[in-house]
Design goal:
The chain is mainly α and about 300 residues long. About 75% of the residues lie in helices and about 0% in strands. The chain has one domain.
Amino acid sequence: MSIEGPIRGVGLYCLALVLFVGMGTLAKTLAAIYPVEQVIWARYFFHVLLILLMFPRRIGSLFKTQRLGLQITRSVVVFAATAFGFTSLSIMPMAEVSAIGYVAPLMVTIMSFLILKEKVGPRRLLAVGIGFVGVIAILRPDQANFSLWSLLPLAMATCYATFMVMTRLIRGAAPPINSLFYTAIVGAVVATIPLPFIWQNPEPLHWLMFAGMGVIGGTGHFLMIKAFEQTEASMIAPFVYTELLWSIAAGAIFFSELPGIGMLIGAAVIMGSGLFILYREQRAAAEAKAAALASSGAD
């Protein structure tokens, strides 16, 4: 593989993260004006429209998938993650929501051990525990202004972790764009259910912001798919933490949200734990591959 492919993949991935922060910025702005349920609906509705416009001749084939029930369940789970995330953004600083969301990979480690029966060593389990200490540093449950609503980002991260595990289970069941379409269409359908009860007529400018949110989010997901097509996941994964930089910048510029020391320390602990787990997983995979090659050579 030439070096251009991996560099391009990392670039696409980082651009996708910037777009996700842009989507979150629009969501936070709109949620201060409209019901959060309406904001969630717009995110999915315009995402579906984007996919249909991009692939007009493949509409029928986009529904093709194996393990339909698991595909739909996975889409509902990621919809729940979006709902928890957007609600969190409406009441919490962007950087805090983003930082707590990084515990999702740590949760995947636990779920892989409990559900997928994958081997997880004590060092990785310890790293998971340390990561959650970082969450406590951010949430500061001993503070007088702590609210149970502050746990919403943890619910978001739990849903994203479940989504990641389910993605492993349906790997190969459908092309990535089909799975993305299911995520969008199922989310749009579920988000439409409460719409008649909470709808507020948007102003023309806000319609553009609603549409922009869905288009930006959909484009981000598409770029992420392309990134993983061109670059190994192990090379891309560490760059996920660059999203926090953009979240801090967006929060400061648009909402005057400046991160405190506790938030920065907690984020550093969570990211450090995540990077350590990633390193251990890569090392374990390399050792397993070397053992397999040695075994085949002996045969």
